[in-house]
Amino acid sequence: MASNVNPTVRRRRLGQELRRLRELKGMTAEEVAERLLVSQSKISRLENGRRSISQRDVRDLCGVYEVEDQRIVDSLMQMAKDSRQQGWWHAFGDIPYSVYIGLETDAESLRVYEPQIITGLLQTRAYAEAIIRGGSPEASEADNDKRVEVRLRRQGRITADTEPLRLWVVLDEASLHRIVGSRPVMREQLEHLVEMSQLPHITVQVLPFEVGAHAGINGQYSILEFADAADSSVVYIEGVTSDLYLEKPLDVQKYTVMYEHLRAQALNVDQSRQLIERVAKEYAR
C-alpha cells in the first residue's frame, strides 16, 4: 500500500506539476487545448489526475510549455509511465470509486461524517454484505461479493502495524438505530465499533438526535489529508452515478470548518462509546 505503487497519487502529482508549468507559462487550459487540438476537458482531467496520462501527452505538453531542461521532461515522462501501473484494487475489476481508493490508500489521515450508516472502514463483513446488497439490488451476486472484498481489503489501512491511517469519524445517531441485516448483525457491528474506537489512531463520535439541525445536514463527506506537502487535501463526496472531488483550498477550508462544528456538536468520545454500547445491548433483547 505504499505510495510508490499507487497510480492514483502518481497521476495526481503529475497533474499538479503540469498545471504548475502551464501557469508559469501564463496559459489557460483552453489555450493549451487549442494548441494541441484536443478538448479543454481533457486538459482539465489530466491536471486533476482523474485520467491516465500517456508519455506522449507529457511530451506534447512540455513542448507547448517550452520546457528546455530535458531532465525535467524525462522525469515527468517517467511519472507518466509509472502512473499507468495498476493498484491492488484493479485486480477486482471495474470498481466505481477506484480513484477514491487510490487516494485513501495513500492518505495519512481521514475525517468522515456519515449520516445514515457505519462508515466502510469500520464495518464488519456481515454488515458490509447487507449494506452493499441493499444498496445495489440490481447488481449480480458476484459483483456484490467483489465489492465486499474490496471494502474489507481497504480496512487494512487502519489495522496496519506501521503507520496506520488516522481515522476520525462522526456518525449520526441514526446510523446506530438503522437495522442493517438483522438485530444480531447490528449488535456485532456496534460491538466491533466500540472495539475499534479504542485504538489510539481511531476516534469515533456520535451526533445525537437532540442536536437538531447541524453543519452536516446536507449529507456525507470525507476529508483526506496526505503526509507529502505536495499533495493537497481532498474533500470527497460520494454520488450515485458519479463522485465529487474538491481540492481548491477555499472548498477544503469550508468543509474543514463544517467538520469542526460537527465535532463540537457531537458527544465526546466517552459519551459516544457509552451510547454505542447501550444501543448494542438493546439489539441483544
Mean pLDDT: 88
With helices defined by DSSP (H or I, 4 residues minimum), what is the helix count? 13
Strand order of the largest sheet: 3-2-1-4-5-6
* Overall number of structural domains: 2
Output the radius of gyration: 21 Å
Termini distance? 41 Å
Helix content: 40-55%
Unreliable spans: 1-5
**Overall body shape:** elongated
Structural class designation: alpha/beta
> What's the CATH class of the largest domain, please?
Alpha Beta
Biggest sheet statistics: 6 strands, mixed
How many β-strand runs? 6
Percent of residues in beta strands: 5-15%
- The CATH topology of the largest domain is Endonuclease, Chain A
SSE run: HHHHHHEHHHEHHEEEEHH
CATH-level-2 architecture of the largest domain? 2-Layer Sandwich
Explain this structure.
The chain is of the alpha/beta class and 285 residues long. The chain folds into 2 domains: 9-83, 434 Repressor (Amino-terminal Domain) (Orthogonal Bundle), CATH 1.10.260; 97-284, Endonuclease, Chain A. Helices cover 52% and strands 11% of the residues. It is built from 13 helices and 6 strands. Strands 3-2-1-4-5-6 form a 6-stranded mixed sheet, with helices on both faces. Strand 5 and strand 6 form a beta hairpin. Helix 1 (7-25) runs antiparallel to helix 5 and helix 4 (55-64) runs antiparallel to helix 5 (70-83). The two termini are 41 Å apart.
